[in-house]
Give the backbone structure.
Amino acid sequence: MDFATLIQILDSTVRLATPLLFACLAGLFSERAGVFDIGLEGKMLASAFLAGSVAAVTGSVWLGVLAGIFASLLLSGVHGLASITFRGNQLISGVAINFLASGLTVLLGQKWFGLGGRTPALTGEGRFEAITLPFADAIAPLPIIGPIYAELISGHSVLVYLAIACVPASAWLLYRTRFGLRLRAVGENPAAVDTAGVSVIGIRYSAVAICGVLCGLAGAYLALGLAAGFGKEMTAGRGFIALAALIFAKWRPWYALGATMLFGFLEAVGNRFPSIDLGLFAIPSQFVQALPYIITVVILAGFIGKARPPSAGGEPYVKER
Amino acid sequence: MTAMPKWADAILVPLISLLIAFVISGLVILAIGEDPVAAMKLMITGALGSTYGWGYTLYYATNFIFTGLAVSVAFQAGLFNIGGEGQATLGGLGVALACLFVPWPHWSLALIGAAGMAALFGAAWAAIPAYLQAKRGSHVVITTIMFNYIAAALMIYVLVTVLRPAGAMDTASARFDPALKLPRLGDILGLVGIPFNNRNPANISLLIAFVACVGVWLLMWRTRLGYQLRAFGKSEKASVYAGINPVRITMYAMLISGGLSGMMAINTVMGEAQRLLLNSVEGAGFIGIAVALMGRSHPVGVLLAAILFGFLYQGGAELALWTTIPRELIIVIQALVILFTGAMDNMVRKPVESLFLLLRKGKA
């Protein structure tokens, strides 16, 4: 494998990791506040659909993004209502949200566009354009640094840079602000937060809302950045890979960047090489595709470091009377 | 003392939740510009108006009985087995191996062998998540989700590179020996003189599903193991204090659950397709969740809920055929049923409880 191929693979790694990173950070906020969210997949799908539809109709990519965030927030609201207000089972609520998104996107897509669940292909203003960073053309001819800067770092859409900027922003919000401290405390020991006079319900709803916004960005990027329009079931399990990355990252923002980049890399390699020939035997592409899931199981098994979820995760908070 | 009589808890609350789910589904149909009443009529005539429709309804219901029972057994033990899809996929592999490579003298023996292999493969696929939950404390929900995806990848690999006959274009195994064809429901009912359409895939697996319902009921409410499973599900701490081994119970619950999911494959793989197809499960593993929630994890409830979902499935197929409503409507209905009977249960339960309390106060 030569240098140019490596740069290409890394370039597509960054693009494929972006939706995973948004979704992983989304899950991070929700789960750190004690609300398990296996509905990331559904929220991404709903967002991708509405973003694709609105961008196709209005021709504006930013209206598309807003619509995507709206769709995702709506489902977050359902999840919040079920798991915070009605103290239902958060996992079951997540499953319901995934199905709801999976069914409604096709139903509405067929009704609106009649393309069997797809939205019309986006062109021009309806899609995110690649941003060329300053001096990219000037540096490009240089050996090694040139391709790295011009192809790998420069030339992505704005959401890619936003996703990466979200990592330090999330770390700052979680570890350097009062809100972040309270959010983490709500996920570990809600009773203590309640005793301190802070609303557990309020913090949890805010966390679920942040999760909704980030999932919305993930979905919008899928439909408007990675692809040109929405396709039926286009998330293709990315919500669950993000969930896997979240566990791999031990619920920490910087680790989340590493985990999603790794999983993005695996996907990029799988796309580039259908099967990897190691001389003695060939690794089938299906194995590479399943690798994120296998890695997650191995991590969960505690063989590579122990991943400890937030203590109060999954449990509705009931105020003592 | 509980606030509600037992019948309200077991029947009234799920029925109200179901009603809400259906009303919202009706609104969804209205929103996409179709008539919900006409749609309902079409679904009823399509799924229940003929023995042909009934055949399909019962064929789908057979799948959902198995997966619904699977989710129920795990639920009773306090575990959420979301991996029915993967376990049923592996069950299909077990059935295919049994049917392709063993020279069975008769279909009945083949059925027993295939069912055993299906249960074995399904249980094996549940065993690793179960072990990790029991021994290493990794959450069974996450691991079973991961195992669904691993199963899907494994199935593609097996069908593309191992089981696909040389020269065949589609990703499917070779056809089974025609002698292994299972008797259709029409044949069986014909023996006792009931005329029943034979051009539908309902087959003898339905009877095995009934047997499984009885078996699960006996297991859960008439054996020591069942008692332990339920006690463990009600309160893990109390059951451990009472001397119940949590590792053993978690393993048993998940193995039984995986085995039941796997057995679904005798209906789809052996009863219908007669060969292993790429996506033979078609989401039935997930519908098991809705079925178990609606059926309150009781075999009788599961049976009724499975028939309801069988009706929805067949009715939905008819809708997709005769109207512009896509099949995905069923997924929406399924989502709403899971949401209202599962996650938002308290939304209905609390007001009903207060109502009963009010009534009781009025009497006293």
Notes: The CA atoms of residues 171 and 248 of chain A lie 17 Å apart. Chain A touches chain B through 46 residues (CB under 8 Å).
